[in-house]
Amino acid sequence: MLIVRDKIDKWLCFHCPDGCGEIIKLPLNPRQRPRWGVSSDWLRRPTVNPSVRQTSGCKSHFWVRKGKIDWCGDSGNSA
Questions:
Q1: Which whole number is the average pLDDT over 2-16?
Q2: Inter-residue contact 48 to 63 (CB < 8 Å)
Q3: What is the predicted pLDDT for the residue at 61?
Q4: Contact between residue 36 and residue 12 where contact means Cβ atoms under 8 Å apart
Q5: Which domain does 47 fall in, by range?
Q6: Is residue 76 in a domain?
Q7: Is 36 strand, coil or helix?
Q8: Please, which pLDDT band fits residue 4 given cuts at 50, 70 and 90?
Q9: Cβ pair 37, 49 in contact under 8 A
Q10: HSE (CB half, 13 Å, CA atoms) of 48?
Q11: d(CA 27, CA 52)
Q12: Does the pTM of the predicted model rise above 0.70?
């Protein structure tokens, strides 16, 4: 779900793709750090930059590219 306020993208919220049940909330505000960017292609498939890393819980680490999840090799590891 993309949350927009005053015509500015504020947050991207979605369920963690590993099935842990966590809701990931990524800030999109360009004045906030850290922040992510989200775009979509003509098929409305989202791409998120940079990668998403859960620092607690399931420790998942992944990229979202053209609507698909690309798992990073360290996903699920605390290192």
A1: 90
A2: yes
A3: 96
A4: yes
A5: 2-71
A6: no
A7: coil
A8: confident
A9: yes
A10: 24
A11: 11
A12: yes
CA dist 11 and 67 (Å) reads: 17
pLDDT (tens digit per residue) in 11-68: 999 999 999 999 999 999 888 889 999 999 999 999 999 999 998 889 999 999 999 9
**18's tokens:** 């590993």
Residue 38 identity: V
| Cα gap 18→41, rounded to integer Å | 24
How many domains in the chain?
1
DSSP-derived letter for residue 22 is P
Tokens of 70: 């690309």
Tell me the β-bridge partners of 37: 49
Would you say residue 33 lies in a domain?
yes
Contacts of 11 (CB under 8 A, 6+ apart): 2, 3, 25, 26, 27, 28
Q: Are 62 and 50 in contact (CB under 8 A)?
A: no
